[in-house]
Amino acid sequence: MASATAAWALGLSGRHDRMAWLSRAARLAPGDPRIAFDLARARLNEGIDAQELAEACFMHLAKTYDAPGAWIGLMMARSKLGDTAGAAEALTAFLSRHCIPNEPGFTVMAKAIAEQAGYEDFSGFSASMRRRPQSGARRLLVPGFDIAALTRIEGVVYASETGINGWASRPAADGAAPRLLFRDSENRTRTVRFRGMLETADSAPFLRRHIFAISARILRDLTPPFSLCSADHIHISGSPIDPAAFMQAPIPAGKKGSAIINKPQPRRLAIIVPVYRGLAETKACIAALLAVRPKYSKLIVVDDASPDRALTTWLDKLSASRKIILRRHAENRGFPAAANTGFAASAGRDVLLVNSDTMIPAGAIEALQRVAYANPKTGSVTALSNEASILSYPNRFGGNPVPDAAQTDALQRMAGRVNFDRSHEIPTAVGFCMYIRHDCLKAVGGFRPEIFAQGYGEENDWSMRARHRGYVHRVACDAFVSHIGGVSFRAASRALVTRNLDILERLYPGYHGLVAAHIAADPLRAARRRIDAARIMANTTQPGVLLISHSHGGGVARQVATDMEALRRQKLRPLLLSTKFPEDPEATPFPWPSQLSEGDASAYPNLAYALPNEWASLIRLLRSLKITKIILHHALGHHPKVRELATALNLPQDVVIHDYACFCPRVNLLNRPGDDAALRYCGEPAPSGCHQCCARDRDEVYEPLPIADLLARSTRELQTAARVIAPSGDAARRIAKHFPAVEPAVVPWEDDSRQVSLASPARNGPRTIAVIGGIGPSKGFHVLLGCAKDAVARSLGLQFVVAGTTANDEELLATGKIFVTGPYAEGEARALINSCRADLAFLPSIWPETWCFALSEAWLAGLYAVTFDLGAQAERIKATGRGITLPLGLPVHRINDILLSWQPPRSKWL
Prior knowledge:
globular; 37 strands; 4 domains; eight-stranded mixed beta sheet; single chain; 37% helix; 18% strand; 32 helices; alpha/beta; Immunoglobulin-like; Rossmann fold; Spore Coat Polysaccharide Biosynthesis Protein SpsA, Chain A
């Protein structure tokens, strides 16, 4: 019941609360476009705000996936919003690339949209490519038809011992089976019959895929290679295909040939750029190459039958002016075949094979050449890039922003300065920018399009063949090339990737393990860190302030972000030292590495220091950054050495109180009096009581120090601080109680004097209660569960909505009295709370919070709040009158009675 799939199913079941369940499903699975589509469809029947959300979602899905349903949804949303021109624009975009559905309702809607836009009717094609309307000289809405898209067949073909099989689809005619042509090399044809449908999947969320299979018995009388094409002879992915090519004996990936001993003489360079689409990217790529290519090098451009007339015309002009050597295919054959055409034209030179969406700066080619000839064994050299598989920078897993020309030049200069002449062996070259030495190319040969078809994995196959002949592959750490790259959302492209990766493992058993071992060893970590350090040191014109915090989010992260923005307004440079969040935090014990950034950890992911071993490196970097002050927000998860930074750097340090980690090893003053007892506020006993608490139950004890040592360390830290800052008077008093020599300054995180408009709940009838934030044990999970069970037992008119997440959604949802929305993003809380249509907010936290941002969100959403009488949450309610506080430990039936009956003061403005 707690899963996204279950919520999705409930949202489609016609229930009265279907919108809530669909919204929950979308929050739990934000990357699933199918759920987003169904939610957008449901929103069409809601109010204007919901329809605007639907319009934005349909636009995203239409642009990303070109899904016909998304285009139709976009038309409907814009029509409902009164956007006549926008609806006509969406209709035009749909008709240009999609066939008219065989549904009368669509024709009625489309004609109405056309008429509202000033036309009498609209024009389009049916699935059989018959033009509508057949006759009549009317004023028509006529799009610019993309015939290639209207007739395109998408699919993939595989080879196996039983023959060949795969799937095909015609995206423009949603649901209609495509007409797939099968031919052998002697032009003999066979009928392709489809045998059912594949289920929708992440790789094809909106595509209807028809399955086909052609048995080995049928293929026996035909001559390979076999082609599977659309009516206009466009191959599907994986075609043409020769099953025999896949049957070679496997060679273990780890095998190495005899090492190359003699280093060849350098040769002049041939730069090869296969081109198909992307006029702007190709122009930028070739312009950069013309500016930086070595003297006497050839620039060979291979036009792989580009359908872009502007691109082919521009290439013809370059060729006529002798700036490039142009080779052109009569039909599209894919990247491996285009690369081979370039290899054939290189005439025994060294080769630099680059994608047409790269930008090579000055100095990069020379760096690649130095590495290529530094060792006789080197067969290929690849550069670092923002998008380069195992060679990506700064995030080594890719997905980095694409740098512009100036940024690319700057990154190359930095890499050249800090990593000059550094290189590492890698298991495989990466084909976006691949320098191949002439002797290696001669020994290994080119790529194998007969196996890898349109491409992906061909350079990995080539790398394995080179490895088995004794060559090695290296990365030049002082070369950086920008690469647009990107993810294709076409199902066939993803299927071809999967197919070719499977082929690599079958041809070279252990290949994926070889790459995985390289990723685990991460030999490029130091090289990436040097570039990160150079980048972060490049901007040291402003004095720096170092903030130390954890990476667990919540109120701490919110306040740290606020403080950093305030520092920027003061013309200071905030730097953040946070914990590097591991892939599996539950299985990763503290301490975690300490990561330096300017607030966005993804910007400098390699500045993560494992302490204490990398202490000296961290100190060196911090000293270079002109830091004038340190603000210690939280050290949870850090190695204790971070507490020594102020002393090591001889800087003043402020200490900010977010919880009670300075004297409570559990942080939040909660304990369990018995093994099966619920958590409760401990009452802040003497140190001996704290010792007994930790000895009895080690769960959620975050600080391993003995109590006496913890108190001694905190005493030194707080007494030597320039300032100790607490967000509430309650928190300040608790700190002063345990550390009498410390007088915290009270600096509220927010201004409670701001006027808010709060709505009084109805005096009679059922009530909906909003519970805000992440509700775990310390935030009152078990109190909330008890309230729900009591409401069920007494048939109370209470319904709880958790606007956020919980420790156990399943248990709460099963009561039938609690709905959990799922997570929300920063800045989204108020809208989410408003969508709950609640009468009151209940914040059942059982620890004395130091501020409580959830309380602020409740007020801003117009709700009075109910809390327990402890901590900043109670102090703030008492000071403002914006709610009621309850005795801690009040039985759940009494809590429910109050939630059903409480009325606020008469004043509306508080």
